[in-house]
Structure prediction request, 1120 residues.
Amino acid sequence: MLIAIAIMALGAVVLGAALGFASVKFKVEGDPLVDKIEAILPQTQCGQCGYPGCKPYAEAIAKGEADINLCPPGGAEGVGKLADLLGREAKPLDGVEKPPQVALIDENTCIGCTLCIQACPVDAIVGAAKQMHTIVESLCTGCELCLPPCPVECITMEPIQETVDTWKWKYPVVELKRVA
Amino acid sequence: MEFSTSPYLLKDTSVRRVMTQVLLALVPGIIAYVLLIGPGILAQLAIATLTALAAEAAMLRLRDKPLALFLGDGSAVVTAWLVALTFPPVAPWWLTVVGVLFAIIIAKHLYGGLGQNPFNPAMIAFAVCIVSFPALMSQWPGAGSHLAPGQQFDWIFGLTPRLDGMTSATPLDALKTALRADEGHSGPLPFLAGNAQAVIALCYLAGGLFLVWRKVITWHIPTAFLGAMGLLAGLLWLWQPAGFANPVFHLLGGGAMLGAFFIATDPVSGATTPRGKLIFAAGVGLLAYIIRVFGGYPDGIAFAVLIMNICVPLIDMTTQPKVFGMKDQ
Amino acid sequence: MGLMQLFKFKGGVKPATNKAQSVTLPIAKAPLPSVVAVPLHQSIGGTPRPLVQVGDKVLKGQMIGEADGWISAAVHAPTSGTVREVGMYAAAHPSGLLTDCVVIEPDGEDRWIERQRVDYKALPPEQVRELLRDMGVVGLGGAVFPSHAKTQASRSVPMEELVINGAECEPYITCDDLLMRERAAEVVKGIAIFRDLLQPKKVLIGIEDNKPEAAAAMAEAVKAAGEDFQVVSVPTLYPAGGAKQLIRVLTGKEVPANKRSTDMGVQCFNVATAYTAWRALGHGEPVISRLVTLTGNVAEPRNYEVLIGTPMDELLAIAGPKPDTDGIIMGGPMMGFLVPEAKAPVVKATNCLIAHSPALFPPKAPEMPCIRCGACAQACPHELQPFQMYWFARAKNFGKTQEYNIFDCIECGCCSFVCPSRIPLVQYFRFAKSEIWARERDKKAADGAKTRFEFKQHRDEREKQEKAEKLAKAAAAQAAKKAAEAAAAAASEGAPAEVAAPAAPLATGPGDTPAGPAAAPLSPEEAAAAAKKAAIEAAMARAKALRTQTQPQNTDNLTPAQQQEVADIEARRARLREIAKTELVHADAPPAATAPAAPAAPADNSDTSEK
Prediction:
């Protein structure tokens, strides 16, 4: 009886020591969770999630303060990836998923007030006071933050058109039932 | 016009054609089987085929898959024939039915159907039945006591009671029993009964070579299988000729030829890379020899295949061939 | 045709070649089309900038799009006429989308621009390359890579072989075959250009052994030209005409995906490319036409010399498509694509148009599950494991497809060709590749957005801080000034500002201090402190004096009215300063973060006004 207990105890000690050693020896210096979450977020910096930017939202998710389905630009795909990363249940998106878009300034109406330049989170608008502003299309994330400050409502959102260069091959459609 | 992409030219081939060639390659072996052991096997093949098609149809219906397309692909028939050919020819009909049902329903469709099964369905059937009905699975028409055709059918359909005296173990089993009983034996083994087996095995070999020629299978698996088994058998035989059978006996006895060309070559559950195929098949050959010589079962092909099936993902992952231009990098 | 050792590449397939139909008749010239639409982007690399506007008259061979950057090639007007449109037009692309085109209405005269022959041997190589670029010479085998950019040998590896690709392995296509049969001499001259630029040790012309006439014609032309090029028959095996496969067959070298062929001392050009290079330099003709095989479901399959920009439907009509024709395949049946828009123009990559019919190309059988038979892996000329990539592409596990080297795939179609389960493997790989590219684009855009966002945040923070510091400085300056004024007033009543400075030492003098008699018992520390204080005050007074001295230089000779105005302004400023000070006091020290805009502005003003 005693011997059995001793053997079990010894086994426990040895295994415990081995595990402890392994946890020190093979410690993985992984990315902090926030960085991993942030890498999934689309970096539109639009604030639609209720946080001032993608990083604060990532931090809130990591702390468990925010839900994972608050990012409309990331879409259902983004929610799915976050769910995979965090081992949580994927949820339907809280918000409306829009096709990718860019802002466009009607240059005839623009009065050059610079308000949109201040509002743009990613410095995608160029212009100076009393000078017409324009949006650098390739830098625009389509966050819509420039729309509300514009006093003359000269900014519109335009869906991004597919071009020969951005066109993608379609997923082959598997239709087995039809032939039955 | 529907959206389709290149290539617009396709080779005249299909799954059905591949499976048909496998069936065709089995025919010489079956003919020899009928001539040397008796027509009972034909009844077994018929039972197995019908059962397989019925089970396949039912499962496709349940899984809401196109019936005509998959029922015609021939894969269920190949499984059925392999079950029939690995079972004793005088096994009761219901045993064959149980084996085939197990192969088609559990080993194949519950894993996702064609192309998805991790284990060889026919070998699952064999393993399940030999574990569940060891006695029935070991009754082979005895050496020399050639059963009349009528008698074989009577047995299969349970019309006359089985008499143990009428059957004997397989040559492998006989050998093992003999070795256990320490009856020294010499010469070319108890080859009396083995003669029929060996001829059938040679016919399987011919069918297998046909498959290699038709490029349905590659040389890797049969070569590695037979090579590894022959090598191990040869070494042990050289070391102790009295204690171990010669390699020719092992290669032509039992299910070695059937296993090497028709069972281990199942692409779905086997390894796929060239080096992987060699490793996989060598593993099957060695394990089959070890199980058949040192284990408790008359033949080891089924268990060897199943064990190696488990290793396939690992083998494939670690034997990915180098791609064009990357060989010396 | 010398005896030389040939190498083998793994895999490959042997589809029915279907070449005999279109080689019976000689090359014909296609009639002038009703309209030509020349896409600006016809090569790998930068999109050429348009040089013409709507309404411009252009001549045949006139440059209408200028190369944008080094990896780019110019485009030219294929015939004379009027520019009708510079804008979006149907593209010769599987997407069916539009692309930037110059649409020209031919005037029927087909009048050439002045053509200049050049003696390229007399020119420095750099200039020859520029010339090739400006003549729009690109790889006509299908990849349309600008040829001039391929004529530079690697710095570290000597050029050994120049491989000329006359293999033409795709079924149905015969344009290179006919070109070599009929225009071998000019092909050889073009090869000489590439040879002169690259200086290889030997030149190997690879031709599949199903084109003996072409090989014979080339061998004869090489002999006639007195060159030492070797014409080599290579076994007919698709895709032996792939550049990497042909290099492998002729030299034994395997060019990996991550290397340029020149890094291994070998380069490869198509025979048609060599031909156009010679036409460009030897005749001054830019690439405005090419040979196109019209075949498939047509009455009279044949090769035509076709102007770039010719609408495909108009072109195919020449060959007489049969009534059941239901589409046009551009390129061969293995790698081509069904043209979604039949009016799309012929481009430099268009080597073949095949009239598609259900009889000729039966609809594909339904896709079955993969049975891992490995036929695709055996057929793959790049020794990939297509069925493994297929599992991952199907599951959209794109990272894994890359681990299995999906970008080594050349989309030759061998795997799909042999698949017994009729899986459109190549389409899965194209899908996965374009998804991966799209994701990389998105990732890059997101990273850029993140960087700019962080920079903007950082900048906002810094600006806030700078403003706060400025405010604090202004407040301190105000306080100091007040103190200095007070000190100055106390030190020398009515004294002019100029003499305020000497007042400082006076302050330390024993007699002048208010506590004069009590000065003696001052401890040394106190004395030091007092001295220091006085020094500071003196310095401030000096500073003020300097200010009053230097500041109003432009106010020296003012009219009384102006002086009055200045005084008013000064008064207003003083008032504002006062307000600012009180506001600051109210705000109590932390004005930085919460300072309202109103007081900040005058504070700034006061600051600038005193400079």
Remarks:
- Chain C has a mean pLDDT of 85.
- The interface with chain A takes residues 41, 91, 93-95, 97-99, 366-367, 396, 424, 427-428, 430-431, 433-435, 438, 441-442, 445-450, 452-453, 455-457 of chain C (CB under 8 Å).
- Residues 367-469 of chain C form one domain.
- The first helix of chain C runs from residue 125 to 134.
